[in-house]
Amino acid sequence: MSIEVKVPPLPESVSEATIVTWHKQPGDPVSRDENLVDIETDKVVLEVPAPEDGVLAEIVAGEGDTVTAGQLIARLEAGAPAAAAKPAAAEKAQAAQPAAAAATVANLDDLSPAVRRLVAEHGLDPSQIPATGRGGRLTKEDVLNFMEAGEGSYDEPMRPRGAASAEAAAPAAKAAEAQPAVQAQPTPAGERTERRVPMTRLRQRIAERLVEAQHTAAMLTTFNEVNMKPLMDLRAKYKDSFEKTHGIKLGFMSFFVKAAIEALKRFPAVNASIDGNDIIYHGYYDIGIAVSTPRGLVVPVVRDADQLSMAGIEKAIADYGVRARDGKLSIDELSGGTFSITNGGVFGSMMSTPILNPPQSAILGMHAIKERPMVENGQIVIRPMMYLALTYDHRIIDGREAVSSLVVIKEMIEDPARLLLEV
């Protein structure tokens, strides 16, 4: 019996999506609920599972095609025995071999649109990436595993590695060690090269929202600096017992989330948003945490963060970090939020002016911790310092409120006991 595989319902306000990666090819046996294909919207990547056991008979929409909700993308022969699949035992046996023995791809024209875009965006040489797909085909997973093994450019506080992901990356990591390092090829004298790659839907959406923020909000940024030594000493003292008790590492982000919440409680306008001619003051604290992923920047939201413990916040952030990297976040987890925090310091940024995440009215920017000479009690001492930046919408937040709220965050971080006492 032939079963049609269609695009699932898309999130609200999303009209179309793009086929990113087919995990099965015509003739491959499939199991019920096994992921067949990844479909990318401008917010999340959706997985389309197999409705029944059987064999994938036909792919109607290929990688890179634009599709809409309910559109036919494949046909499945339900209940067909595995023997009905086209002979591919030898190919699958080869694909199951360690990645070190896998084939490689040398021509960009042989790549799928999704893989071609990922390779181009990160300046990778496909001939250096072990290919584990059928017939020596380079898959999206091959590229991501290669990047994870060789580059490691994700947001460190937001990317704890699980055992499963470590095992999955191990074969590719061994192959990467066996391969020569990827280096930029010198450009011959007089040659001027260019390459054109399509923007991903997520990148298009990010561009739209950033331009929207600049066109609609009266953005202004105020700066301060914070002495991180008290917090670093506290973390060093309790990090081992904290991890033993709660099963999660103690990072800096939970302290900044708690400090920001205290500032929002004292200055409600910083936690507000504009809707037409009205100001909406939110009586809850949903904090967005910006996460850098291979697909672009996403901002999952920690709901009711004021009601969570430090361990609860750290666990939520860690979970979001892993699932953001794997494209497993849902629309609900990326929607809403009353205030955001972004940490450019993990990439080495000393100072920046973060852009608002509409319709929020403020965002906190953290930066790199650097030792600098400071004056304390008339003496010059060396302290680990961090610059803080608060970008706010001047339409509803006055300078006094913005500056004062950033001072509250500074005071809480420099004297962490105040977070417990709420003073």
Give a short synopsis of this structure.
With 423 residues, this protein is of the alpha+beta class.
List the topology elements.
Elements: E1 2-6, E2 17-22, E3 29-30, E4 35-40, E5 45-49, E6 54-59, E7 66-67, E8 72-78, H1 89-95, E9 103-104, H2 113-121, E10 130-131, H3 140-150, H4 163-178, H5 201-216, E11 219-227, H6 229-246, H7 253-266, E12 272-275, E13 278-281, E14 287-289, E15 291-293, E16 296-298, E17 301-302, H8 310-325, H9 331-334, E18 339-343, E19 362-366, E20 369-376, E21 379-393, H10 399-414, H11 417-421
Parallel strand pairs: 14-18, 18-19
Antiparallel strand pairs: 1-8, 2-4, 2-7, 3-6, 4-5, 6-8, 9-10, 11-21, 12-13, 14-17, 15-16, 19-21, 20-21
Helix pairs in contact: 3-4, 7-8, 7-10
Descriptive overview:
This protein has 423 residues and is of the alpha+beta class. It folds into three domains: 2-84, OB fold (Dihydrolipoamide Acetyltransferase, E2P), CATH 2.40.50.100; 89-178, no CATH class; 202-421, Chloramphenicol acetyltransferase-like domain (Chloramphenicol Acetyltransferase, 2-Layer Sandwich). Helix content is 31%, strand content 25%. It has eleven helices and 21 strands. The chain has helices at residues 89-95, 113-121, 140-150, 163-178, 201-216, 229-246, 253-266, 310-325, 331-334, 399-414, 417-421; strands spanning 2-6, 17-22, 29-30, 35-40, 45-49, 54-59, 66-67, 72-78, 103-104, 130-131, 219-227, 272-275, 278-281, 287-289, 291-293, 296-298, 301-302, 339-343, 362-366, 369-376, 379-393. Strands 11, 14, 17, 18, 19, 20 and 21 form a seven-stranded mixed beta sheet that branches. Strands 1-8-6-3 form a four-stranded antiparallel beta sheet, with no helix packed on it. Helix 7 crosses helix 8 (310-325). The longest helix is centred in the middle third of the chain and has 18 residues, at 229-246. The radius of gyration is 25 Å and the shape is elongated. The model is unreliable at 82-106 and 151-182 (pLDDT under 50).
